[in-house]
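Hi R.,

As promised on Friday, here is the backbone we talked about, encoded as structure tokens. Could you run it through your design pipeline when you get a chance and send me back a sequence?
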């Protein structure tokens, strides 16, 4: 476990591609989808927070602090990450979307080790497409908590693209060899067609 690391589980989306359902609470293989994200980080972090903008009482049943976005206006995942930074008491924060049930066991360790080794401000994972092009998964990121002012400024100035901000802030890119590990389950059909 890393005592200097907190996790934020991003469950604040509108679930528009899932018929408006609250995605983190939708069952997948008999468990709420968010439970897989929690299980991916719980052995590695000192605290877990859930970023949610509805179903607050239901999310509180998981036993973790639930926080609502401080910046409103449909700002996407960065709004949840920013709220996580505002509430984070440790040196680092890792963000995990609530709809990625196949995350690898070595995710947290590989990201934080890359930050330690390169002294960068954060780390985002990528896999490779068949043509060797990098495919980034930036809603999964590990970053220094001190970046909250930078992220606030980026959002206030109209920035929305995660990768543009991480490039500005000297994030390292960490390779993972299995694209399946970062698959998002966005629709009810995705849930039906997948198995753990």
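Update: got your reply. Pasting your designed sequence below so it's all in one thread:
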């Amino acid at each position: 476990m890393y005592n200097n690391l907190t996790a934020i589980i991003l469950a604040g989306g509108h679930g528009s591609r899932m018929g408006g359902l609250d995605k983190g609470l939708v069952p997948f293989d008999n468990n709420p989808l968010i439970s897989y994200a929690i299980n991916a980080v719980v052995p590695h972090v000192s605290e877990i927070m859930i970023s949610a903008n509805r179903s607050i009482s239901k999310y509180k049943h998981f036993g973790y602090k639930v926080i609502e976005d401080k910046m409103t206006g449909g700002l996407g995942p960065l709004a949840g990450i920013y709220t996580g930074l505002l509430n984070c008491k440790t040196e680092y924060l890792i963000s995990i979307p609530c709809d990625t049930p196949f995350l690898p066991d070595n995710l947290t360790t590989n990201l934080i080790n890359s930050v330690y080794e390169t002294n960068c401000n954060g780390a985002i994972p990528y896999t490779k497409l068949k043509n060797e092009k990098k495919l980034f998964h930036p809603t999964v990121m590990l970053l220094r908590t001190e970046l909250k002012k930078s992220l606030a400024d980026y959002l206030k100035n109209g920035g929305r693209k995660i990768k543009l901000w991480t490039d500005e802030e000297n994030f390292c890119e960490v390779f993972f060899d299995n694209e399946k590990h970062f698959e998002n389950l966005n629709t009810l059909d995705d849930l039906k067609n997948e198995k753990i």
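One thing I noticed while checking it: Helices lie at 33-41, 56-60, 77-87, 107-118, 148-156, 162-168, 188-193.

Thanks again,
M.
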